[in-house]
Design goal:
homotrimer, four-stranded antiparallel β-sheet, 3 domains, 8 helices, purinergic nucleotide receptor activity (chains A, B, C), atp-gated p2x4 ion channel fold, receptor (chains A, B, C), disordered C terminus, cell membrane (chains A, B, C), elongated, 26 strands
Chain lengths: ~500, ~500, ~500
């Protein structure tokens, strides 16, 4: 690129290129477009900016730590356990106070189990037997409690018995009590301490009132007036999930406690409050389904004086609490703001695209707007002229101009003919005699002709046949390529009418 | 659609339609646009591509597995427990080595609790009593340890006592030691083994050096020179969070250990390294708050020779470690690359939109550019002519052309009049004699007129009143609609000047 | 803004402005653009809409609850433990049935440990000693089991011994068995109950067949024909991860069980099915690495008749199962649909941008299309004329027109000269005699001139020097600014040819 090119480039660098628009004074499409614009603007302002806070940078990767503590004691008096008091160390499993914890509400206790042989429980189908051969020794009972010893134990004169097994004996045989053992657990309280931190904004908060008043946390209860006292009554939590406490205490269940922090850090930190929600997480919808409820077995191991190990097996029913923390913090940031505005503008482009489709395809006058919207340019390839050929009076090569048919008042027979100078290269013009009605431009003889379209009677004949009508092919030569601007004009009644313009690029070559 | 239409469609399918731009040689707006372009490009390249690696497909759903192991023993000698050695099985709860584990650092032990009656602790307000009636039998003490039996126990001659309760007796009465029992836990080590896998890219890695040298993991310590030896001294971890070990050992606390894997899989796998960060997750900001610290109670259950159950209650203070793994892997993918470039280009559209607003509304010459940018086209509705009416010499219906006022040199009085053929349909032209200064086109007689705007003296009179000025309404007929291209030209001093063009669609109908 | 302005505004509000397009009849670029369009459309339809279901609003924050239950018993007979039956309460840690649980498959038991003094294990390097002074009393053995008492214990005549320590004695000395103790755990079954809920759509489902047939869950096994029976054989799970059960049982390991819910809520709820996948989460790739496997130590605490505490230490090897639930639900929503379509259209804009680059820079005829695409407008600053100056015959100020050089048939010497009325303001036209070849417009005398570019022989001389060629500067005056439309036309052979148009804004002032 030369010096001039450089200068031109640096000048054109500061040119602003803006799309050329065609104003279609069509009220229907205009209204449609305005409606779309208003919809997109409304969507942008209301949904993206007000509801979704699109002007904020968000942090959803919160660091959260949960400490839970259950409080409450209850007293039971059963034939099996005798008088017994239950405190936290007894009924909360595991004891660590993490985000998942379990409160025992019902219990099947099988005390003093030892490793020895006894009869398998009758409720296990695989253990039923009629004779010893039904109990292959060494084989475990499917879904049972032990390994068969090879004997079939029948009580009294019964024909059917159960296999003898080597197991923790006696095996668990009792079925679930019909009344929860710890029905009074309803009054226990759960204290949930949640500390969160949004690392991106270095913002942290806790859901507990930051007070030095020791009495506060000992006496308060959670409620609308006390949102920063996260002490919940167990019965209330269950009822908030829509469940019945005595039912869930009997069968067991899983309750989710969601804590949601939706913080707008453009506001004061005190506006960033936790929101609690409670839901039943096992399928309560099928109360009688065999898969409902929650229970598990665990054992406490002891040794007697002789060092023999024995255990107390417990099948515990109860409520498992899953405390889950979600959070989102947002703070104003210029990048998402710009991106969201940008996408909104891009969306308007989509709206314009849709309206364009309507304008140029669907409405009645669509072909008119289509013609206005699209301006046609194309390049034409002309066949090379024979060197040394004469063209004055000789038949010229007629190159049909594919663009001409789009001129509304010419039919497809329009053409433009060109003839190069005799035997010479394109560069350097020569004096060339053009035939009548032809024009000499940049070394070419040019003639254009056409016929009025859509008229039965000839419309003033060929353009070239009348002295007052003519076509100009103005040509700029650039090696083997010439830009050709074709304008049609007509003289009639002493006035000259310019009929139209057509821009073409003619590629000319000499063999 | 006919055969010709099909051919035209298939031809126009390969046309490329490109927006027409107006080059506004306005340096200010040009500079503004270039600045916006550079900003967006910089944003795209630096932020989207270099920082956010927008050319990569990312996988954030990593599969992670954590195995932790604490090592270390310590020896204590207290009046309560006597000489005692603490090893991992004693002080780590739970023992499984999962991602959340707790190291006991302080302990209140209440040994040999049995289910019987005793006096409630004096520190519980609800248990205070003056007489037996203050202790309704069967009612649990609020935030207490047992159920009231109905008696008020007063020591000596004290007026005030505490209710007798049925509970695990004796109740816990001691307060927190002032010095942590396991203060030497500072020297314990934590080994954190983390295995991750990005399922989308089937890439897996571990944070432990893959060596067969058994001595390596026994002797190494984590540090900048040993990033693949994830063995941490407990005291160091605490100090990295900015906390004091002896303080946290006394009160308890929660420490988060974040492991972050930010892997660029376009690089070598060895470049994908874990990054560790340590933070205090309970609210250290309020050291003296009643809600700070971390502790829980648990019990070990025993049976004596007579089979009576007793337990040792422990209130454990300590440090809970939450190991959290985050990860992100990215690998080049063509789809996000294209989408990000596309959004960048769309954003440039938004920049152009902004510059357009400046160009056509804010700058001084905005109305000039507005005229250049927007090319007006519209359709005009003409009132139907009466069938059988004559128009030669008769007053024609003057349809004001709403578009004409935008021609800068005509005032609002410009109009175009049309007249259809006598009594005939639009199709098929007829020989019609048009009156003077009118032109015959496609079956219409057309006349246009206007007055030069902004001049007091008439500007060469009406266009129609001079033989050397004329308007051409070239009309193409398509049923009831005609496209009308109106050009104004003027002959003066033997030259013909084309003054302007206006495109209109005229809808004509006969009643 | 006046009343007229308001009316104009309200009218133009319903105008639809559509981009003007230039149709480039270039088959290559057209084909390229169509290909890009088809690619983007395919991407949009296939990837965004069919694969990614971009027309749906999605919820990925599912609430999930997992309940697990292991079943199976096994019998072992070792010299250490004697005959022993293992049931769930023995080998599942922790017992609660949460999403992470551990099944013991191998065990090193060190029974009857008591707090006393004994020799440290010989496998610990730090405990080796030759004399008592090697064992500083009170110092814990690094990576050992206790605290040194100060004595060096040598067996027989050995020179080397180990320090005596205070610890849980005897210390663990056995090494890992070469055959897994609970090798038959292969036949245990895991029952995984998973309840999920998508809160946004209030849709919940469980992975267990909702039946009242109690026998179903007792007999069924997971398989393609039984997807709603989530009961897995432990050995099968291990083999599905590509591991060998006996190996993993020996060393321990971690297995991840992923449950994926990918729900299309536009379909029936029964189409929303869980998908299970199983993977090994510890680094199986380095079987012999020292860091492979999974084990931990825990203890069972007892008291003997005298109240002395003793414990059984167990080093448990086994399989940890991590059940992980992922989920995504989608439901048709108009907003993401519109946004995705909009981004697709915006992406087409990016495609057009790319094709534009090709069209106007890369192809051979690019400069031609560049000229067609960009229409140049600019404003020109003219120097103020001297008040009272005469311009008839006097040298006029020649303002070079920077835009003229873009007219292809004029060289850079083109100019337009203007002259204001004698001593008067711009408003109000006066009768001014313009010199020859100048035109009077809106109070200005205008003349334009140029020279045909690229031709050695002068092209009909200066435009102004021929009576049949002329330039019209039509001027509208607006205070100190005049819009100037310049058209070049040429009369030749009795025809008038309009050569081109150039729009300029001329700022004129009088000092």
């Amino acid at each position: 690129m030369g010096q001039a090119g450089c200068k031109g480039l640096s000048q054109s660098l500061l040119d602003y290129k803006t799309e050329k628009y065609v104003i279609a004074k069509n009220k229907k499409v205009g209204l449609l477009y305005r409606l779309l614009q208003v919809s997109i603007l409304t969507y942008l302002v209301v949904w993206v900016f007000l509801v979704k806070k699109g002007y904020q940078d968000t942090d959803t990767s919160l660091q959260s730590s949960i400490i839970t503590k259950v409080k409450g004691v209850t007293f039971t008096n059963t034939s099996e356990l005798g008088e017994r008091l239950w405190d936290v160390a007894d009924y909360v499993i595991p004891p660590q106070g993490e985000n998942v914890f379990f409160v025992v509400t019902n219990l099947i206790v099988t005390p003093n189990q030892q490793q020895k042989t006894c009869a398998e429980s009758e409720s296990i189908p695989d253990a039923l037997c009629y004779r010893d051969s039904d109990c292959p020794p060494g084989e475990p009972v499917v879904a049972g409690n032990g390994v068969r010893t090879g004997r079939c134990l029948r009580v009294g004169n019964m024909q059917r018995g159960t296999c003898e097994i080597f197991a923790w004996c006696p095996v668990e045989t009792k079925s679930r009590p019909t009344k929860p053992l710890l029905g009074k657990a309803e009054d226990f309280t759960i204290y949930i301490k949640n500390f969160i931190r949004f690392p991106k904004f270095n913002f942290s908060k806790t859901n507990v009132l930051d007070t030095k008043d020791k009495a506060f946390l000992k006496s308060c209860h959670f409620g609308p007036e006390n949102p920063y006292c996260p002490i919940f009554r167990l019965g209330s939590v269950v009822s908030w999930t829509g469940s019945n406490f005595q039912e869930i205490a009997l069968q067991g269940g899983v309750i989710g406690i969601q804590i949601e922090w939706d913080c707008d850090l453009d506001k004061a930190p005190s506006e960033c409050n936790p929101r609690y929600s409670f839901s039943r997480l096992d399928n309560k919808f099928s109360e009688n389904s065999i898969s409902s409820g929650y229970n598990f077995r665990f054992a406490k191991y002891y040794r007697d004086g002789a060092g023999v190990e024995f255990r107390t097996l417990m099948k515990a029913y109860g409520i498992r609490f899953d405390v889950m923390v979600n959070g989102k913090a947002g703070k104003f940031n210029i990048i998402p703001t710009i991106i969201n505005i940008g996408s909104g503008v891009a969306l308007m482009g989509a709206g314009a695209f849709f309206c364009d489709l309507v304008l140029i395809y669907l409405i009645k006058k669509s072909h008119f707007y289509r013609d206005k919207k699209y301006e046609e340019v194309r390049s034409v390839m002309l066949l090379p002229l024979q060197p040394g050929g004469t063209f004055v009076g000789a038949p010229l090569i007629r190159a049909p101009l594919p663009g001409l048919e789009t001129l509304p008042w010419l039919d497809g027979n329009a053409w433009c003919v060109t003839a190069g100078p005799l035997g010479g290269p394109l560069e350097g013009p020569r004096k060339v005699e053009c035939s009548e009605n032809m024009l000499y431009r940049a070394g070419f003889c040019l003639r254009a002709a056409g016929r009025r379209k859509g008229l039965q009677r000839p419309w003033a004949g060929d353009l070239v046949s009348r002295p007052d009508s003519a076509a100009i092919c103005h040509v700029t030569s650039d090696k083997s390529e010439a830009s050709l601007g074709l304008s049609f004009s007509l003289r009639e009644r002493a006035s000259t009418y310019v009929l139209g313009f057509l821009d073409l690029v003619v590629l000319v070559g000499w063999g």
